Amino acid sequence: MHIWVDADACPHFIKEILLRAAMKRKIDTTFVANKSLALPASPHIAAMRVGQGFDVVDDTIAALVQAGDLVVTADIPLAAKVIERGGTGLNPRGELYTDENIGARLTMRNMLDELRSTGVMTGGPAPLSLADRNAFANQLDRFLTAQAMVQD
């Protein structure tokens, strides 16, 4: 299993949770971004810088993800691609994207995108709260623990 992080939009405190988990559990984790990232030295942590452009990070992650991998992203179209390839998506609010919920999430995202394109103000997501951070950390721990059990 490998953890891929859509690092361009990853909040700092989520990045910190992921770094701690990668080092503690010795899980290879790659932060993909179109800018330079400062990451601690570890054999389990890597940064991948990709070119500028719309969806370059997403396309790179989608091309590299394999079945069983985890991708941390708030991007629903990327999560849908990850699921198609047998991976799992986890958003920074601690929600897993799965076969069961990705269709509804993608439909809602597309509908809101259409409304915004017609000039309707739909607002954005609320800022991440302490409860969101805790939900992310707990969901990540549950996922990694379940994966460790499967591998044993």
Mean pLDDT over the full residue set: 91
Task: Give me the count of strands.
Answer: 6
Overall shape = globular
Strand and helix order: EHEEHEHEEHH
Largest sheet: 6 strands, mixed
The share of residues in helices is 40-55%
Terminus-to-terminus distance: 13 Å
Computed Rg? 15 Å
Structure classification: alpha/beta
Count of helical segments?
A: 5
Strand order of the largest sheet: 3-2-1-4-5-6
Beta-strand content bin: 5-15%
Low-confidence stretches: none
Question: How would you describe this protein?
Answer:
It is a single chain. By secondary structure, the protein is α/β, with parallel strands linked by helices. The chain is 46% helix and 14% strand. The protein is built from 5 helices and 6 strands, in the order βαββαβαββαα. Strands 3-2-1-4-5-6 form a 6-stranded mixed beta sheet, sandwiched between helices. Helix 1 links the parallel strand 1 and strand 2. Helix 1 packs parallel to helix 5 and helix 3 runs antiparallel to helix 4. The longest helix has 22 residues. The radius of gyration is 15 Å and the shape is globular. The mean pLDDT is 91.
